[in-house]
Every structure is written in C-alpha cells, then in structure tokens.
Structure prediction request, 116 residues.
Amino acid sequence: MATEQSQKLITITPKAAEKIKEFMAEETEKPQYLRVYVQGGGCSGLSYGMGFEKEAEEDDLTIEENGVKVLVDSMSQDHLQGANVDYIESLMGSGFKINNPNVTKSCSCGSSFSTE
Prediction:
C-alpha cells in the first residue's frame, strides 16, 4: 500500500535522474539519497529545497524513481503530492524545476509558493 502512495507522491524525470546521478558521483561524501523538501520562506510562504543525504531520517518516505532514491520528510509530503522534478536546459540557463499541482499562488520571482 505504501508503494502505491509513494509512486504518486513525487516523480523524477529521466533527464533529472541522469543529472542527479551525475552530481552525486561528483560528491566526495558518496551520498545515497536525494532529499526534496519544502521549507518556510520567500514572499509566498514556502520554498523548495534539494540536497544529498547519506541516510534516511525516521520520518522520511523513501521513493525510488529512475534509479534515484528520493527522501521526503513527513511535513513536505502534503505539499509535494503529485509533484514532478525535471531538469531544464535552455538559453536562459539550466537547472532543476519542480512542477507542483498543489501550488495555488507563487511570487513573481518564482522562488516561493503557497498551497491551500
């Protein structure tokens, strides 16, 4: 049952997974997981964060997507339900983009958001 829920929680596109694995391989600490989280801050109240971890915490949900193990803490799970992590390359630059169906309002600079 938890597997079904975790598959719907967050998805990592193949392009994002490729870049995540590339960045993880460059780390000297040899992380095992990518952490995706939501934290308070920004003009709209919430912002995303991503980082590498060597091990999971007690309240983490672990998802494996395209060969990447992703950790999401219990507080962030409600805000990230159905979200998609992609890697975008364009003339304006490149980076990770989180497409989140729960966002009801975002700031004009695009770095923070709010959900209901």
